[in-house]
Each structure stands twice: as C-alpha cells, then as structure tokens.
Protein: Methyltransferase type 11
Amino acid sequence: MPSVELKKISLVDLFLWTIRRNEKDVVNMYDSLSGIMKISTGGDMLNFGFWNENYDSPLSAQKNMCTVFARMAKLECGQRIIDVGSGFTTPASIWHEQYDPLEVTCVDINFEHLRNAKQNRTQRAKNMRVNATARILPFCDQSVDRVVALESAQHFKPLENFISESYRILKKGGILAMAIPVVQKPTSVVDLGVLAMTWSSEHYEAAFVESVIRQQGFEIISSEKVGSSVYEPLTEYYVKNRKHLKSKIAEQYPFYVERILYNSLQKMKNVSKKKIIDYMLIACKK
Structure:
C-alpha cells in the first residue's frame, strides 16, 4: 500500500494564524486542521458538541449541539435561514431533516469547504452555497427569518460588522443566534497557557458580545453559558480514546500536531473548570 504524505503544518504558520487572525489565516487554518476534527469524530462537522449522558460520542454530541442550537434559534418549517460560517454544511442538512421544508443559504469564506460539502438530491434545490465574508452579507434588507452562526462568530472581526449586517437583512421579529466560545474576563498568556498559541480566534468576552448585540438594536431573548457541557466532556473523551485517535492522526499529520492538540485540550478543560473560558448560546430578536 502506498504511503500517505503527511500534511505539513509549520509552527511559524500556527503562530501567525494566532497572532494575525485575519480572514486568510482563518481559511488556511481550517484547510490545514479541519482534518483532525474529521479524524477525531468520524464526521465532517466542525463544532465541539453538546455532551451529556445521552450524547457521549463526538458525532452524537455534535448533532445534539445542532438540535439544541436550532431550538434556541426557534427554527420552524418554511423559514429562510442564513447559516454564516457553515463549514461543510452538515448542520444545514440536520436542520432540513428536523424542519423540512426549509430554505438554508450556507455562507462561508472558505470556498473549498463549500465546494466539498456533501448534499443529497432533495436538499440541492433548497440549499444555496455562497462564498462570502461575514462582514458583508450579500442579501437584501429585511429578507430573511433567521441568521445563525454555529461556532463561527469567534472568527468574525470586527464582530460589530456581522451583527449590524444580520440586523439589516433580518425581517422585523427575525432572530440572530450564535453559539460562540467566549472568555469571562480579559485573559493573558498566564491564564491560557498553550491555548494562547493554539486558540486561533478572537477571545471575545461574554459581556462584550452582549453589549454589541444591544448596541446594534437587538433584544436578547436567550443567553446561556454551557462550557461545562462542551469543553470538559470533549477533553475527557479524547483522553479516554487517545491511543486510537493518536495513531489515526499520525497517519496524516506529524507527531507534534497530536501532542499540541492533547496539551491544548487538557488546558481547555482546566480553564473551563476555572470559568476563565466559557461557551455561549445566545439568541436575539430584531
């Protein structure tokens, strides 16, 4: 059997993705690292999952996150939804199963993710894929029922642009919903440790997210922090299954990538327990 060429990830690139965090860096990061999530979960969703005793494997926890998020966003049959930062569009497929008929437009800055997304025949006529930035959403004023960002808004910079664009395109009474990793207060390298280098997104404070939402004219109708059901069980799953996952990752990535991942997860669990970081589910109405 021919050997598989390992994906090369430069530690310099990793450093620059973390420091600059511009849109090109986000695309390059996901192009390089989304394969680790696929290996670790066996699927192509890019969220951490919402874990409990009934959802204790990556795919089941990720699907549960999609379900919990949809309920918070008050998705209903017949709505027009814009999914911003849609990744490989799998959440949209789940929502189709739960709320059909549904019109979902999947927006992502990463063209390759949209191009490679799986989509069955019945969904093809209902889903559109738009390669665009969250800062400028290419939709008419007051034309959609929901704007959703499932674990993607942490990359949107400045966040205010995405919030204001969401307000513009939503109909009166429409809802913006986000699932977003946050910090509880300003953090430093001392607080985050290795995460200061590997958490390649904006470290938005929870209070800041809420203030921006209100400043743009939205009414917050639901806000919940669920980090203990996200970070900690995810880390525990990885540690329990590390031997197997480590060997699978080593088939595609250099050994040091898994080592960094493992140390990052351990630190993520630690700072989650200390409430330094959290995970916010928030919905607001226009």
The chain has 13 helices and seven strands. The longest strand covers residues 170-183. The first helix runs from residue 11 to 20.
